[in-house]
UniProtKB/TrEMBL annotation:
Gene transcribed to yield this protein: rplA
Assembly description: Part of the 50S ribosomal subunit.
GO biological process, one term: regulation of translation
Organism field: Hyella patelloides LEGE 07179
Pfam families, sorted: Ribosomal_L1 (PF00687)
Family: Belongs to the universal ribosomal protein uL1 family.
Protein name: Large ribosomal subunit protein uL1
Length: 239
């Protein structure tokens, strides 16, 4: 049986015209209006692309640097060896180590949001694939989480850099701030996400690339965003 909607959700759904593609700023103001939970809800984007990720030339996995940040603290773990471990500590990583950290993670320790590894440790990190893969935490060069430049990577992820990928059905699910952000800051982050997805269009993507963009707060209804209007906006950097 389908789950019965709460009265709160029914009331919120009445505020959203399901047949309308909203102008980006209008959609984000509506997202804020429908974020009525007792905590600061996350702003989420759900973007359907015209790709079939079962083909290697139609996959997307990359990072975006949100200009207004994520609105949340990020715990970074680093797997390295020798002086690089101390470098990770000094750069602000909460968790750092070598083989012993790999063993802890294999036993179930997951007290981090981002895992960075130096290239020389990847052969050993590879055995964590079964543990980290399903959670999207496996370090990868494309995701910027396999690097020898630990200070730059750590500071970037703490400042608002996010890794994302399309799921099996070609949909990108990514958070882009908090409902407490003003609508203009949310728009700057959403625009950065859109531009990143356009820059990283897979070579095998044919036909219409953008199919739909919906935004919502973590406990709120989905709001359809006018894709053309979003792509036509000028970014802060261009301005």
């Amino acid at each position: 049986m389908p789950k019965k909607q709460s009265r709160r959700m029914r009331e919120l759904l009445e505020k959203v015209d399901v047949d309308k593609a909203y102008e980006p700023l209008e959609a984000l103001n509506l997202l804020k209006e429908t974020a009525t939970a007792k905590f600061d809800e996350t702003a989420e984007a759900h973007i359907r692309l015209g790709i079939d990720p079962k083909y290697t030339d139609q996959q997307i996995r990359t990072t975006v640097s949100l200009p207004k940040g994520t609105g949340q603290s990020v715990r970074v773990a680093v797997i390295a060896r020798g002086e690089k471990v101390k470098e990770a500590e000094e750069a602000g990583a909460e968790i750092f180590g070598s083989e012993e950290l790999i063993d802890e993670i294999q036993k179930g320790m997951m007290d981090f949001d981002i895992l960075i590894a130096t290239p020389d440790m990847m052969p050993k990190v590879a055995r964590l694939g079964r543990v980290l893969g399903p959670k999207g935490l496996m370090p990868s060069p494309k995701g910027g989480t396999v690097t020898a430049d630990l200070p730059t990577a750590i500071s970037a992820f703490k400042a608002g850099k996010l890794e994302f990928r399309a799921d099996r059905s070609g949909i990108v699910h990514v958070m882009f701030g908090k409902a407490s952000f003003n609508a203009e800051d949310l728009l700057a982050n959403l625009k950065a996400l859109q531009e990143t997805i356009d820059r990283n269009r897979p070579s095998g993507a044919k036909g219409r690339y953008w199919r739909s963009v919906y935004v919502s707060s973590s406990m709120g209804p989905s709001i359809n965003v006018d894709i053309s209007a979003l792509r036509d906006l000028q970014s802060e950097e261009a301005a």
